[in-house]
């Protein structure tokens, strides 16, 4: 279970502090307006650049509020991190990833979904980017308010698509690229969910379903954490620091392998030392994944900051370059002030408004412990690696949420399988024995895991009263009561995913026409 809320947790989530958090965000945006006003003093269209900078900051705040929850939510839900601790770690690593590895140049046309060469009018290009940025931010704000984690990349893609069509007609869009993005709605969550479920099932079979968990944990847990270390080492080289150090997949894999070897040795020693005092239960095994989860949350946040800051600053950098050069640009240099708007906006949005989505991802979809959260983090890194090598477009948000649903549905399957096993045990006995078994199985069905163990011990001693064979008792030892996935969350999140691109596109088109009407 997650730890009790501390002072910082209460400060970040209490309704009584919400007005102060909203007020602080307005002060942050006002600061952007004033600073950019000073930097652009004397520049043509400086007011438009100041407005675009404020919108870029607003977009960054909403990315921090919505998207970062996927990186730290499982760690919080499992109790590996407190909410306040997760927010601080994620804020530092998100901002660090954006500033250190965000790059010097960014593509202005996200994903190549529209043909910039069809836009001759610089003003139309600036209005397009401004409308796309504001539409993406508004949609993210609405999704966060609804408690639905959505893809920030898809939000800005929809904004650029809608504003682009409004500016240049239907022919401006690359519908082949859009088809790949639509395909990612299915590919991302399915890959993340399947991998997370497979790893969880493997851990259950190799460790949690064993009678003596400690020897099994000493054997398998170092290997599992080493696999995670390889995945994250490779992931960071492929996605996190690609704009600092350019390496091919083989080089990235070798770096990951070196990290994995070191982590394996450290975990082997650590698990060996803890085995003497560790509880011989699933709770005891769970404690072994605490530090791997903390490192995973930090590294996922760093990689996310390095990659997704472009969703906020890409259009802003494009507007800055277009106004400075007086021409439409397809790749824009990133001034330090633009990068700081994105990096600080991510951190501010996460700290002020991120906790709501962190709780949704971490505890409201399905109950998570450290083992399940570990599987989700591992599947997120592996899915990105696999998808990037196959050239598949995937969303980190969809992957992470897919992983949460994957472990939830596995638990649901195991619960269903559990009910089937109880039914089959009843079928194998004559009516008289069924009458004696029914009270026991009813108690077993409603028992906690610890109570199940005691009931089976009593059944072994009282074979006349509870006519269970040795093989049937062995089958029942493998049963754990599991909670089902909350269907209301599944419906709301999937619906939000489906309408993200069309909703942000429609808003962007409307905003483009509004801006053009006001500024022409």
How would you summarize what this structure contains?
This protein is mostly helical and 520 residues long.
Can you walk me through this structure?
- With 520 residues, the protein is mostly helical.
- It has one domain.
- The chain has helices spanning 7-13, 18-39, 46-66, 69-77, 83-101, 122-146, 152-168, 175-208, 213-240, 249-274, 282-286, 290-308, 310-325, 336-353, 355-364, 370-390, 396-427, 431-445, 449-461, 470-477, 487-519, and strands at residues 105-107, 331-333.
Topology (SSEs and partners):
Layout: H1 7-13, H2 18-39, H3 46-66, H4 69-77, H5 83-101, E1 105-107, H6 122-146, H7 152-168, H8 175-208, H9 213-240, H10 249-274, H11 282-286, H12 290-308, H13 310-325, E2 331-333, H14 336-353, H15 355-364, H16 370-390, H17 396-427, H18 431-445, H19 449-461, H20 470-477, H21 487-519
Antiparallel strand pairs: 1-2
Key structural traits:
two-stranded antiparallel ribbon; 520 residues
Largest β sheet strand count, sense and barrel closure: 2 strands, antiparallel
How many DSSP H or I helices? 21
Runs in which pLDDT lies below 50 for 5 or more consecutive residues are: none
Provide the structure class: mainly alpha
Taken as a percent bin, the fraction of beta residues is under 5%
Mind telling me the C-alpha Rg? 26 Å
Counting DSSP E segments of at least 2 residues, the number of strands comes to 2
Fraction in helix: over 70%
Overall morphology: elongated
Query: Order of strands across the widest beta sheet?
Result: 1-2
Query: How many domains would you count in the coordinates?
Result: 1
Rounded mean pLDDT is: 83
Order of helices and strands: HHHHHEHHHHHHHHEHHHHHHHH
End-to-end separation in angstroms reads 58 Å
